[in-house]
Amino acid sequence: MNLGKVVGTIVASQKDDKLTGTKLQIVRQLELDGSETGAFVIAIDAVGAGEGEVVLYASGSSARQTAVTKDRPADAVIMAIVDSIEVGGKLLYEK
Amino acid sequence: MNLGKVVGTIVASQKDDKLTGTKLQIVRQLELDGSETGAFVIAIDAVGAGEGEVVLYASGSSARQTAVTKDRPADAVIMAIVDSIEVGGKLLYEK
Amino acid sequence: MNLGKVVGTIVASQKDDKLTGTKLQIVRQLELDGSETGAFVIAIDAVGAGEGEVVLYASGSSARQTAVTKDRPADAVIMAIVDSIEVGGKLLYEK
Amino acid sequence: MNLGKVVGTIVASQKDDKLTGTKLQIVRQLELDGSETGAFVIAIDAVGAGEGEVVLYASGSSARQTAVTKDRPADAVIMAIVDSIEVGGKLLYEK
Amino acid sequence: MNLGKVVGTIVASQKDDKLTGTKLQIVRQLELDGSETGAFVIAIDAVGAGEGEVVLYASGSSARQTAVTKDRPADAVIMAIVDSIEVGGKLLYEK
């Protein structure tokens, strides 16, 4: 999984039937220190993450393993909201 | 998923049988501000996107989860046409 | 899918049983203007592409969705020979 | 698979149900000489790796092939703890 | 598939049960001219490749399509030993 931050939302009314009712979040990929990399991904939200929250997202076929994304044409899912990040015994992030 | 813009079309009469009847669109990957990255992908269109439209495309096995792409040798599908992009409460794009 | 050009062949007599009878083509990835990127991939040919031909190739699990590649340990397949590429109403390539 | 070193842990209480009871490790990707690349991944631990240990991790759908990760929305798994790395007859690393 | 050269071995006694009995080879990715790229991968050997041999390896779910790797948490497999590489009618490599 990758570390990301929810920064926005995409609205798309004309979409594949299987995507009806999903929430499309824009997730910027983060470094461990919380700084943003240039990369971003559009992910379906399976955990109710809000804008500004630090999250984990899974990619590829694994993104279809939640109840929300099963059998859907989605290659990225937000599957956890991060409480804390600890590296080398040091707390880098706490919600 | 990734953000892209349909910029063209590929015609291929000699192709695997399973691709018969599909529309092959050229999709340039976009940044959130709408500028084009250097990357592009050839994707099957599952939503009737026209040239110039801003779309979402899914990659990998997830690209085979639409009615149009099921069981086909396709690793990218346009599965949504973008209405709007909002980042940090600011509307970055509106169709 | 990605755009490529068949530039050569690989012969491998000692290989997994499931690869018997497949043709291993060397495919250089192309830009839309036909110039070669530095990247290349070894793909199984499902459409009878010859050297120098511009093709589309699919990667990952989607590469196993042709009759030629089904259940084989192959992560890339040539699944179409390109007739023409049109971008912004301009014909960039014609076979 | 890729070579990595466990450098920390992520705690996420609000997550997809299928992730309950998994341990989320932060794994920095390593070069063969043991130096760290800039890349990292969050992986589920299937072998009880501790901080500082050199490990192998698998990505994509293969990450769901352990008893710990089966059917879970996880795209990376630590599936081995490295005892030794030998390149060109030279021992580069020994636990 | 990608072109690589077996350059070493990894020993890991503590690993997921499904990996028992597999051989973990270190494979450096090669350019077509035989020079090494900086990239490498750890792959399960399905064809008995020895150190120094030029091989093909498959990645992702396709890596699980050999008898040796079926249902295992492995995302890379050596599935062929290269006899020769021919580009543009010129023999670039012969075993």
Question: Can you give keywords for this protein?
Answer:
homopentamer, 95 residues, mainly beta, OB fold (Dihydrolipoamide Acetyltransferase, E2P), five-stranded mixed barrel, two-stranded antiparallel sheet, 8 strands, 53% strand
TL;DR?
5 copies of one chain form a homopentamer. Chain A is an all-beta fold. Chain A has strands spanning 2-11, 14-15, 24-30, 36-45, 54-59, 76-81, 84-87, 90-94.
Description:
5 copies of one chain form a homopentamer. With about 100 residues, chain A is mainly beta. Chain A has a single domain (about 1-95), classed as OB fold (Dihydrolipoamide Acetyltransferase, E2P), CATH 2.40.50.220. The first copy, chain A, contains no helices and 8 strands. Chain A has strands spanning about 1-10, 15, 25-30, 35-45, 55-60, 75-80, 85, 90-95. Chain A has a 5-stranded mixed barrel with strand order 1-3-4-6-5. In chain A, strands 7-8 form a two-stranded antiparallel ribbon. The radius of gyration of chain A is 14 Å and the shape is elongated. Chains in contact: A-B, A-D, B-C, C-E, D-E. At the A-B interface, strand 1, strand 2 and strand 4 of A face strand 5, strand 6 and strand 7 of B.
List the helices and strands and how they pair.
Five copies of one chain form a homopentamer.
Chain A: E1 2-11, E2 14-15, E3 24-30, E4 36-45, E5 54-59, E6 76-81, E7 84-87, E8 90-94
Parallel strand pairs in A: 4-6
Antiparallel strand pairs in A: 1-3, 1-5, 3-4, 5-6, 7-8
